[in-house]
Amino acid sequence: MVLPEDPKYALKKVDEIREMVDNDLGFQQAPLMCYSRTKTLLFISNDKKVVGCLIAEHIQWGYRVIEEKHPVIRSEEEKVRFERQKAWCCSTLPEPAICGISRIWVFSMMRRKKIASRMIECLRSNFIYGSYLSKEEIAFSDPTPDGKLFATQYCGTGQFLVYNFINGQNST
Ligand code: COA
Predict the structure, then answer these.
(1) DSSP 45-108
(2) In DSSP terms, which residues pair with 119 in a beta bridge?
(3) What's the CA dihedral at 157, 86, 83, 160 to 10 degrees?
(4) 105: Cβ below 6 Å to ligand 1?
(5) Count of other CB atoms within 10 angstroms of residue 70
(6) What would be one Gene Ontology cellular-component term for the protein (predicted)?
(7) Which end of the chain offers a freer environment for a tag, N or C, measured as fewer CB atoms within 10 Å?
(8) How far is CA 67 from CA 48, 53, 89, 96, in A?
(9) What is the DSSP letter of 139?
(10) Measured in angstroms, how far is the CA atom of residue 154 from the centroid of ligand 1?
C-alpha cells in the first residue's frame, strides 16, 4: 500500500502506474477527489511485477445502480455480452459511503484469478485504521463493463454503489 506521505520514488511509481492504467481503460478518468488522501494498493507478482492496482479515495456519498431486467439469459457468455452492450443507470438519491474505488485494474493475462477481490479485501481492512469496511460503504467510480461484472459478483448484487459519474450537476 502506498500512501500520500510515502517517499517521492514510491509516489512517482504510483503515478506511472496510474497513467498506464488510465491508458488501458481507454478513456479519460475522473480526477482524484483529494490527492493527499488516496491510498494505492499494488499487487506484486512473485517475479516482482505490478499485476494489479487499486486506487481508493475518501468519499461521502454513493448512488445505487439501478438494475435493469435482463432478457432471458441462458449462458455466462450471453450475460457478459449483454452487460458489455448496455449502459448503466443509477439512482439520484445519495447514500452515505466512505471509500471510493477510483481505479481498479488487473493485468489482462492475470484476470479471473481473484486478484481484484483480494485487493478489495485488503483495502477493506486497511482503508480506515482499526475498522473493516462493509461492502455497503464502498462505491465504484464510473464502472466499465468489466468493473460492473466484477462489482456485481463481489458485492453480491447488481445494485452496488457508484460515484463520479457525469450527469449534469450530479458529478460528485
Ligand atoms: N466478466 C465476467 N465476470 C467477471 C469479470 C468479467 N470480465 N471479471 C470479474 N468477474 C466476476 C467473476 O464472477 C469472478 O469470479 P470467477 O472468476 O470465479 O467467475 C469475480 O468477479 C471475481 O473476479 P476477480 O478474479 O477478483 O477479478 P479480476 O482480478 O479478474 O479483476 C477487473 C477484475 C475488473 C479489475 C479486471 O477485469 C480489469 O482490470 N479490467 C480492466 C480494467 C477495468 O475495467 N477496471 C474496472 C474499473 S471500474
Answers:
(1) -TTS-EEEEEEEEE-SEEEEEEPPPPPP--SHHHHHHHHHHS--EEEEEEEE-SEEEEEEEE-G
(2) none
(3) -20
(4) yes
(5) 12
(6) nucleus
(7) N
(8) 39, 27, 8, 20
(9) E
(10) 9
CB of residue 158 inside a 6 A radius of ligand 1: no
| Residue 22 Cβ contacting ligand 1 at under 6 Å | no
Q: What letter represents residue 75's amino acid?
A: S
- 169 pLDDT higher than 50: no
Pocket test for ligand 1, best of 112, 118, 121 (most atoms within 8 A of CB): 112
Ligand 1 centroid to residue 7 C-alpha, Å: 31
pLDDT tens-digit readout, 16-64: 999 899 898 876 666 665 667 899 999 999 999 999 999 999 999 999 9
Q: Is the pLDDT of residue 168 over 50?
A: no
Report CA(82)–ligand 1 centroid distance (Å).
Answer: 16
Cross-strand pairs, 52:
43, 106
Of 27-31, 106-110, 166-170, give the range with the top mean pLDDT: 106-110
CA of 81 to the centre of ligand 1 (A): 14
Query: Distance between CA 70 and CA 78 in Å, rounded?
Result: 10
- At which residue does the C-alpha cell 455466462 appear? 76
